Amino acid sequence: MTNTQVTLIQIDNYGPWTVTPEPRREVDLQALQSRLYADLSQLFGNRNGYVFFSRFDNMIAVTNGMTIDAHALIQESIANRYPVTISLGIGVDRTPVDALGQATSRLQEAGSAQDRTRQEILRGEMLDESQRTDEDVQIAHFDVNNATGEYTDRLNEFDTFIQIEQGYAELMRYMRMAHDSLSFFVGGDNVIAVCSTIDRPAYEDAVEHVRSTVGVDLKVGVGRDRTAQDAGMAAKRALERCREKGTAVVLDL
Amino acid sequence: MTNTQVTLIQIDNYGPWTVTPEPRREVDLQALQSRLYADLSQLFGNRNGYVFFSRFDNMIAVTNGMTIDAHALIQESIANRYPVTISLGIGVDRTPVDALGQATSRLQEAGSAQDRTRQEILRGEMLDESQRTDEDVQIAHFDVNNATGEYTDRLNEFDTFIQIEQGYAELMRYMRMAHDSLSFFVGGDNVIAVCSTIDRPAYEDAVEHVRSTVGVDLKVGVGRDRTAQDAGMAAKRALERCREKGTAVVLDL
Amino acid sequence: MTNTQVTLIQIDNYGPWTVTPEPRREVDLQALQSRLYADLSQLFGNRNGYVFFSRFDNMIAVTNGMTIDAHALIQESIANRYPVTISLGIGVDRTPVDALGQATSRLQEAGSAQDRTRQEILRGEMLDESQRTDEDVQIAHFDVNNATGEYTDRLNEFDTFIQIEQGYAELMRYMRMAHDSLSFFVGGDNVIAVCSTIDRPAYEDAVEHVRSTVGVDLKVGVGRDRTAQDAGMAAKRALERCREKGTAVVLDL
Amino acid sequence: MTNTQVTLIQIDNYGPWTVTPEPRREVDLQALQSRLYADLSQLFGNRNGYVFFSRFDNMIAVTNGMTIDAHALIQESIANRYPVTISLGIGVDRTPVDALGQATSRLQEAGSAQDRTRQEILRGEMLDESQRTDEDVQIAHFDVNNATGEYTDRLNEFDTFIQIEQGYAELMRYMRMAHDSLSFFVGGDNVIAVCSTIDRPAYEDAVEHVRSTVGVDLKVGVGRDRTAQDAGMAAKRALERCREKGTAVVLDL
Fold it and tell me: What angle do CA D237, D238, D244 make, to 5 degrees?
């Protein structure tokens, strides 16, 4: 049974800041956002967590095993190095979507994302150390079959991008609705999903759903472990086995 | 009449590199990709260009005014600082999508994106200085009406993300099909489109299309100038005027 | 009694790389070196260690509490993100200088710093967990008395820099010769020293030595703890107390 | 005749910020400082300038060819991405030390480096475009003869560092006193000096002075050009010729 600890990272009052006193240069905002994400990826990654950039002003992390103190230290480290601050809400649940729901509520209860006085909130529930198991986090790593040969080397790059993007948009929606799972595009033709306890037929169904709906062919490797990092690495290795064996779904559970 | 110079930036042989000799840690790949993008954003930005992360292993830039030497210097600078190299294809056309088509073809003709021996390609056509005008680049900056109040402060963050993502997926497809334009999600609830010469009714039509198709309410500010940076800043200011006036489309052409 | 674990970080074959096939642009080398240092500062810092940039191609870290696995992970993370690799030698001793001596020997025995085939060495002795105490690391944080009023706001910046630099050059030499301690300039008018078990008269003597030899007035706060980070923070707080009380030496041991 | 445009970059009110409300974590300050330097190195480097980290809170740049607008854009870009702001003073003179003197005075006249209300000052004189020549900037690139064989591969790394540091401390002082030149350690065993119009005997004298005073053997390549970047690259190539020919001084003027 999965038991996922999810952290919502929200830049405080970011929208207003980007246009105060007048719109800031886009190239600086892009550098700011992507470096903030890179740093968070390392800060959470050093503690066996995963962060996804999602909307950049709101990022979502899987943080099984991370304490409230570790969260506080990350919050402080960002404040020491960036012109913006971050708020953190944390939730734990059998399904990733409900864990994120709790994490989100904790920030929403503290005030609006665009409330100037709501800064550096840190609230939430941690997974108790005694309750942790090697089945807590289930990660699925999807990619597109032969994306380079089918798309990248043949189409206008934007048309390739449209294909990947439509595949992702459909997969993210379906996995959330059908399986309470959170799917994130991570670059190239890759999507990483943080899943509830779902089995082989469910993955086969998702792959089939995306193929029949938007015509994009996926394969997926799945791993399960105590932390995001370990489950994610198992998923990557399982995906390599898909490649070698030519199969659409490999589970390493 | 727009005349857009577009550069395709492709990491050489990236997919294979990420799994050689075995899968590399995802948190490092994410840090690598997002910092590479941040650096390119600054390198092109310092020359009045814009870069969009799109798929991260393939990024798309608007580079009016940038010479082949400037491109070569950027290519060298990345090789000096990263474990990967980049190839650059450049195209110029009345429409952004055709300019990107040329840029893409130039790399495809040089070999596969996953060909180990195809490295640091630099090919393409530049916009001749004598032909440049103040109407060459048209940029549209879209955002979602009251995204914070409607979504961020109310929904589970993933459901907010789904809304934004479905709006983007629909807009990117429509703007490409109907208007030969390239639209990129840039974080939060923002999309920046590199457009051909399109007018107010076309923007109104796109906003209406997204509303009626996926139920997401957009507004858009549009700017036009000699470079991406100047056109983009005009678009941001126009978007601020949408906000002040409560209108869906403001053109500053 | 101090018992310091010291890690020597050496970029593999760096000198030759910087001029192959011809000299690389200095601005890229500077960005590469300083970002590598920033990343190491975070990677070691996330594990309660301190890194000093010293010569940038050779950096020195205090790593009490860090395992060989933690070192291996840092080594791998750098290889995943940089065009260069690093070797790590680790030593433990009563005095920091002897610990570094062991760390250095381990790399020297593995080959020259400019041997192309000597890559990613990882060798050394760790401080056994059972032997660790709250007195293992002693850190002294020095700064120059009223540097802003005396120098920065009055002299040509280079002449200020010369003063600070001569003070540092004298302090580093004296602390090493007289007290087997390693002193590092860390920016502004600050020097952090990793010390053996030395007492108040020894610090008073060092401050007096620098004043009488090169005319630079220092003060110093000293902390001691289980890790570099905790000892260093205690030293900073002690230095604040010097400032408040107007005294030259405050020990928080 | 050299004619050097020098910019002093000063972080506003940095010292107080680092200890407010209490001392900030050193590993964050180190990451902040070194990344700020890396970014400035790229921002100035993209405009053919050089920046030296010197004290990190005060950095010194050679900016021949850069306008006041380019300086303003860099200032704005840093404010958009960092929790601190920078002030810039600019001076031009036959000798680098006097150019820096003017740059320093402009900031000192605007207030103290630790005045909370003195922020983002931008003042100074630019080198007029019509007066620029290919002899404006003279750069000397020094390194230590056989540093790897003599020191790195043989001594405790701190003792190597002491040798390099004593050599640098002596060279920086001598070049400033005898030749109005500004010398900066740039990592490894390398020092880059921004020089006035000095000739071969002067370089031979400096090399001899350092050898006889502190026993460190240097060699030096010298270049001259319109910008720091071009002069610096010529100096690097000249240093390669020293290596090949086994001579102590090569001038490419």
Answer: 90
